[in-house]
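Example record

Each entry pairs one chain with its bound ligand, zinc ion.
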Amino acid sequence: MKNIPSKELKAVKIYIDGLVQGVGFRPFIFRLAKQFNLAGLVENRNDCVRIKIEGSSAAIDDFVSAIKNDPPALARIESVVCKQAEVEGFCDFSISVNNNVTDKVTLVSPDVAVCNACLKDIKTQPDRLYYPFVNCVDCGPRFSLIRLLPYHRANTCMDKFKMCENCQAEYDDPENRRFDAQPNACSICGPQYTLVFNDSLITGSKEITGKTCGLIKAGKIAAIKGVGGFHLVCDARNYDAVKRIRAGKNREGKPFAVLMPNIETAKKYVYINESEEEVLMSRRRPILLLKIKENLAPNICVGLNRLGVMIAYTPLHYMLFEHGEFDALVFTSGNATDSPIIIDNDRAEKELGKIADALLIYNREIYNRCDDSVGVVVNSKIRVIRRSRGFAPDPVNLDFDVEGIIGAGAELKNCFCVGKGNRAILSQHIGDLKNIEIFNLYNESIERFSSLFKVKPKLIARDMHPDYLSTKYANDSGLETIAVQHHHAHIASCMAENEYYSDLIGVCFDGAGFGDDGNIWGGEIFIINDVINYRRYAHLDYLPLPGGDKAAKEPWRIAVSYLYKTFGKGFVEIDLPFLKEVSEGDINMMVSLIDQQINAPLTSSMGRLFDAVSAIINLCLFSTFEAEAPMRLENIVDEKVKERYEYGIDGAIDATGIIKGVVNDMADRVSAPIISTKFHNSVVSIILDASIKARLETGINAVALSGGLFQNSYILEKSENALKQNGFKVYTHSNVPANDGGVALGQLVIAAKKRRSKCV
Ligand SMILES: [Zn+2]
Ligand SMILES: [Zn+2]
Ligand SMILES: [Zn+2]
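Structure tokens for the complex follow.
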């Protein structure tokens, strides 16, 4: 240490926690130490970044302020703790690589979109860096590659690639953007893409991008290995190619997402406001659902007014767009419908090879598979619908201990959640557990999360449903379990996301969940005290579901049940077009199932009311994908319509007035968009009226909105606004899904609170 008298020399140990690994944090500290003429060392530990620093007391103060005030772009500092230390007499500052192991862990960065500086390198350093895996401390894959903490190359899928001289020099140079960048690689030393086409293998960045673009232009389909798994890719303007992917994936109606090169191109095809642009261009780069302006191939999303768009996020994407001059490419996950996204080359060749004309594979493993995330912007905030790449494994920070608790999640759209210290770490989107491969993935992923974050599971919080596979997982674990009511968990997840734990009115409008009375709940208004205590304040009046599970896939059955409930047996005489689409025998069968109470479980599900209205107006009688009927209903909403239907909220929420209104409007030949909007307005009005009533009785002024129905942008926007206008404090979801993808967080939180109050 130059120029500092030894008696003025101070030593401090600094512990920094948060998202501080894999984000260029140590090089940043290194440069800062040089700038302030300080000596010492910085090291990544499992639980933090630790700095030992020596120098003048003023310089150390400035150093600490600079860390807090101007951290690297991707870092998120959660705490900085400074402790006085003994002077060790360092002569320089260095970065230490050690293998510190404790049970505490720091955060793992999600995968991050390629940065502008790296995109520039592709153009300016064609020899080495015209390369589909170029990355630096500010960008590139992270979660998909990491096996263990701390975050060193040896603990990632990059371990088998030895850096070339140039890469090593960049990696070692504190002034370089690639200093200490663990996945650092170039076209000479790193992973390589190979294009498999007609038994020939093509390599070389220019060759593979050129050839792939040529094939796509000619209407071919490519299976391309990406950050978190394979995609099936074709020209988004080519009707026949899109049709072939649809047939190959056995996917009838569900829309496909598209990848676009930049925001300007996206603006040609969809409407994008300021907050949507911000989300689209964020480092997370999710698929965002956006209102369509101009159509691509008409079979990309049939009869829906929103298109799922994402902007190029890997160097390869940019190289393809540069070569191909496409406006948009279909980028749908490479899997059979309901199976996990494929990550390994052999499997891709075998299965995707049947759909794709060419495969673009690379020779590096994907350790943690990750689908593209999906979201929509409502009231200027992102609302995540599928939480995966770019989001996982970001934790939700809590102010209580959740160590060792696992939230097993629900059955559909499963995500699980592991508790580490005061953090709830939600997994990436796993999927529908009924598929055996997904269930295996679920088991494997829980194990991997537990090992990565060094969690020893002690308590599993699971859904109350006795037959969910997540329940089976919990019961087979041999650990202590706690059953949590599905909708209670939804509300608790919304509370945790908003760090609000006081008394509140919980509105949970959802598809289906096992209720305390054994019926299928899903249209619930709760009064919640201390998070763990809930009272069912009101619910949508029970309705028999003729055919049980089948009814959720065949909305016409629910329509029949609602009509029967509202009008009695005479409903068959009503002149409704949909009743003519179904055979008389089938209708009579539903009535007799209801009458005899055979396979006609009772439900209070709000999702089923949406199904009923969708069928009564002849919009969707059979669903080809989950929640299709409510989606088609939302799709035709006309914001100009302000009227609503009548309903009752004394005791149970009575929707027969709504059904009567819809039927009357059908008789008066009122248009479907007007009926749909009046129906949506009625649901918003129910939320507001019930909340006001509950506030009058309890004095509680806070409302949480959760459950799958709040994926409906119109309902979420209007009810959030209406409640706020009426003086409520309103809590809604943003980074945690309102649908079943968020349930695990609520389960974990309830289990932790119960553990703390010694209920378990
Ligand atoms: Zn970069
Ligand atoms: Zn290299
Ligand atoms: Zn649910």
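Residues 193-362 form a domain with the DHBP synthase fold (CATH 3.90.870.40).
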